[in-house]
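Input sequence (124 aa), recorded before submission:
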Amino acid sequence: MRKTIGLDVKPPEKECEDKKCPWHGTLSVRGKVLEGVIKSAKAQKTAVVEFRHNKFIKKYERYERRKSSIVAYSPPCMKAKDGDNVVVAECRPLSKTKNFVIVEIKADASQPVKTKAAKKEESK
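Predicted structure, token format:
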């Protein structure tokens, strides 16, 4: 029997022994669920996820494109890397800046958005 986390996402294929993993540990998720692209996954068990959204400007009656970043916890069973499309869910504060955890890596994304870091690696 598999553990469910209360979201409609696919569980990871690998297992881990991490207490902060929502699938294999005791971390519960609640609140916001967002989709974004990993901008940086250099820090240990941490990923910076970038979200793009449109903001309506009332004066001009138009939308402007905006982006924001969130620091998310990356469990070892996820194997998230730069350029991956991911689903993150809100959880309790894990550190000073981490309030989100990666719960799924989107496999159905046809072409992941390439970040500057991913482009540099590709050109080498």
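Checked by second reader. The mean pLDDT is 85.
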